[in-house]
Amino acid sequence: MAKEKNNNEIKKNQPVWRRTKRILKLIFKKPEIVSLSGELPSRALYVANHAAMFGPVMYNLYMPVPIAPWGAYPMTENYASRYDYLRNVYFIQKRHKTKFAATLLASFEAALSIYFYRGLRVIPSYNDNRFIKTIRLSMNMLDNDVGVMVFPEDSDEGYHEVLTDFHAGFVELAKYYGKKKGEDIPIYPVYYHAKKRVIIIGEPSKLTEYTDRGMNRKEIATNFCQQVNDLFFKYIKDRPKLQPAKS
After folding, report:
1. pLDDT at 206
2. What are the residues facing 46 on neighbouring strands?
3. CB 119 within 8 A of CB 15
4. Which helix (H) or strand (E) holds 89?
5. 204: alpha, beta or left, given left = phi > 0 and alpha = psi -120 to 50?
6. Which helix H or strand E contains 199, and what residues bound it?
7. H-helix or E-strand containing 148?
């Protein structure tokens, strides 16, 4: 219960992270942000590509509304859990680093990443019966007008420019929200491209638009994967790179 309470607190004002964000914004310049549906609500579900390591950071720094992303639960636990996940899953499995390089990188990043994860308001994402904790923490964020961002892409073999598949956990969150609140939460597809330096936020839709057509959770997840990919093909693929700002 203590850990859950800690995660509930990360939505609140954090002066240290606020200063850290100012430094990060000097390093990671603001991308062009295009919303295809105008002003965004904070109480919404944003389904996005991960864009390797820095996607979650860029979304947190520059999305027009505050967000709390889902993240791998080992990264919200102790040093050993973070190190093991970073070395064996993130760097070796997903980034295809050598064991030597993965060990060095994981040793360093496991020590610092917990502070970034707290600042980013990361919600631990579980793939077992603890998933209800992910749902509860997500609902807490939404109730406090912090949007929830999910990266559902299948990244077991690494991160891809064109996404191959989506896991369906975000569908369960949307379903739970509807049952608890008696209304659908808007779900927005989002794509960030690091080289083109642009974030595209697509048109929202609602869960009942799919369930009323008889679509199951996997079919809904696949449909949103296509929506996110469509943002890449329609608005990013042939787009010239955004020139760095002079200031």
Report:
1. 97
2. 149, 188
3. no
4. none
5. beta
6. strand 198-201
7. strand 147-150
Q: How far apart are CA 213 and CA 150, in angstroms?
A: 24
The H-assigned helical ranges of the chain are: 2-9, 15-27, 55-62, 79-84, 99-119, 131-143, 169-181, 208-211, 217-235
Low-confidence residues in the chain, pLDDT < 50: 1-11, 245-247
User: How far apart are alpha carbons 54 and 70 in whole angstroms?
Assistant: 14
Predicted pLDDT at 41: 94
The model's pLDDT over 191-207, given as tens digits with 9 standing for 90+, comes to 999 999 999 999 999 99
Contact 86, 110 (CB under 8 A): yes
Tell me the two tokens of residue 219.
């079919």
CA 146/CA 74 separation, integer angstroms:
23
Q: 138-152 burial string, b = 16+ CB within 10 Å, else e?
A: bbbbbeeebbbbbbb
Model confidence, pTM: 0.88
Greatest alpha-carbon span in the chain: 52
